[in-house]
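#help-structures
NK: newbie question, is this the right format to request a structure? protein is NADH oxidase
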Amino acid sequence: MKTVIIGSNHAGIAAANTLLDNYPDQEVVLIDRNTNLSYLGCGTALWVGRQIDGYEGLFYTNKEDFIKRGAKIHMLSTVTNIDFDGKVVHFDNESGESVSESYDKLVLATGSKPIVPNIPGKDLDGIHFLKLFQEGQAVDKDISSEAVKTVAVIGAGYIGVEIAEAAKRRGKNVLLFDAMPTSLASYYDPEFTKHMDKNLEENGVELHFGELATEYKADDNGRVNQLVTDKAAYDVDMVINAIGFTANSDLGSEHLETFRNGAYLVDNHQKTSDDSVYAVGDCATIYSNALEATTYIALATNAVRSGIVAGHNIGGTVLDSIGVQGSNGISIFGFNMVSTGLSVAAAAKNNIDVEYTDFEDLQKPAFIKENGSVKIRIVYEKSTRRIVGAQLASTEDIAANIHMFSLAIQEHVTIDKLKLLDIFFLPHFNQPYNYITMAALKAK
């Protein structure tokens, strides 16, 4: 059995590892247009902000490891066409030759691509995107220039907020723009995002929310030197676009069924509408347990799980995807926020009638010196009372709590079951009246 995998980042790597580790009858071929594989793009801001020593640790495997295990790898190779009827992938290899690989099963792991704002000046020098390793290198090189004093970041989602912090840590004047009225609006309700906004401002990031970029202007050398929005014009030396991503599904969109955003529509085995083709990671749909519906959530953790599911099903072991919650987190200037499932705003957008319960308290008893306040919100469906979302924010490390809420959403746990959950107490960690318990008890 020969499986060709197009794309060798998180999802493609997970599928390849699953096949190579468990199914010795599998011939595995990976094709990727990049110079590298397995890049942890979520660590780019840590590297650019010099919070880690270098980018080397952001690669968790390499080409040689796969070759030793019997895989065939084509790097710097661009797929030009897929003959789905003949089961052949045509591509230009590293040497520029037009070659092909036949397949029994094909895995599309082509990921996502940045949304490019179609405004005047979008192709000027000094305007960057941030996804691939090479793009991270370009941003790091540009931001290291003494000539770059002011950096504009377009988009205040996770990547935008993280790279804004990184630029500020590098001593730059940072302007953060977003069309929404707050940062992180896709993940948290305003009661939470206002704390992140305050945190950014207190650390010197200039916020421009509710503002839409309309044009980039250049100096005499063709480099961006001004950002124009629907409200004002700003002198800048560099622009980083972090508006968001959409599915990179160009290769198979004319042959395979797709979702409303263009992502390949897959079943719970990651199989597409073509029985011989699987799609994994950011180019494919995923099932949301909070929504109880198929949707699109581009996260590295989801990509890994989808790759594992596809690998086993291709190998002959029937394995159903159990769905996801979209669990996520961020840490900026020591302020931590985590969420899973739906915010109140996201529930309303999806026509799900919800209630929520909030609570805020110290993480540990007041007599503990190293301490901090924790804010929690639990969102639950009004009719069934099942938990559909949770958000937490604190300077304390509260990240692990979100895993429990992820499982609660997956297993349809109600807010009432959570009220008397056995949560241990020790002053080193928490309070006897735990904020999770107290929030649940406050539910209507």
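mod (FA): yep, format's fine, and the tokens are attached above. The domain at 335-441 is CATH 3.30.390.30 (Enolase-like; domain 1).
NK: thank you!
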